[in-house]
Amino acid sequence: MFMRLLISLLLLLSSPLLAFDHSGWDALLKKHVSWQRNGVASAVNYEGIAAERAALKKYLNSLSAVSADAFSQFSNDQQLAFLINAYNAYTIELILREPGRPDSIRDIGTFFSGPWDQRFFTLLGQKRTLDEVEHTLIRGNPNLKDPRIHFAVNCASIGCPALRPEAFVGDQLEQQLVDSTQRFLRDRERNRYNSETDTLEVSKIFDWYQEDFAESAGSLSLYLQRYANILDIPDNRKTALGEGSIKVRFLPYNWSLNDR
């Protein structure tokens, strides 16, 4: 009997449910983020979140309270979900910190210290910037690096992949990343095949992080070939895409605030 109780306790302690509670963030997202354009984009009600700033602060404080040692006990999926949520939540906090609502996140900071260089929060025991979360804690960790994070982290801009109206969680992370990727690639304002010029016109994100996509698939063209159906590439041009015979052009990025 004692051994069974001990085993049950050990299983309970190792349960992913004990990893971290994102329900506070999830509730804010469900209430103040809405899908737009048939679900390929989303809009954030910043005024609504501002009215519930205490709830946002409570969630941010809970993120900051997690030590590096505690974080190391999370599974890889739990760690990645934690960091994506942290990036997205602190990005909204950065917008709300401004005295007036900026037209663009790039209006924050100075020429020498932009929005992603602001060291305004503590995470895993250190003062951090948004750039450190994305490029050091996520992309800099071989166990967490996944090109699909570029369809999950949200920079508060219309050009960004949609901010989901739900929190990322470890036990649903794979499905959420798949869904976020597909939604983004279905957006014909940001990713489309031009049959007149035989050109694949895609988001600037694929240019900025081309190395990540190439590392995953061998080349950017091969990565995009995986999603040829979603991108509406004609059947007779799918092979050409993988071979790099279709020109890839990067579209201008819309930095306007994602509040509409």
Describe this structure in words.
The protein has 260 residues and is mainly alpha-helical. 43% of the residues lie in helices and 10% in strands. It has twelve helices and seven strands. The strands form three sheets. The protein has a three-stranded mixed beta sheet. It has a two-stranded antiparallel ribbon with strand order 1-2. A two-stranded antiparallel ribbon has the order 3-4. Helix 4 (53-64) packs across helix 6 (76-97) and helix 6 runs antiparallel to helix 7 (130-138).
Describe the SSE topology:
Layout: H1 2-13, H2 23-32, E1 33-36, E2 41-44, H3 46-51, H4 53-64, H5 68-72, H6 76-97, E3 121-123, E4 126-128, H7 130-138, H8 173-185, E5 192-194, E6 199-202, H9 205-208, H10 210-217, H11 220-225, H12 238-243, E7 247-250
Parallel strand pairs: 6-7
Antiparallel strand pairs: 1-2, 3-4, 5-6
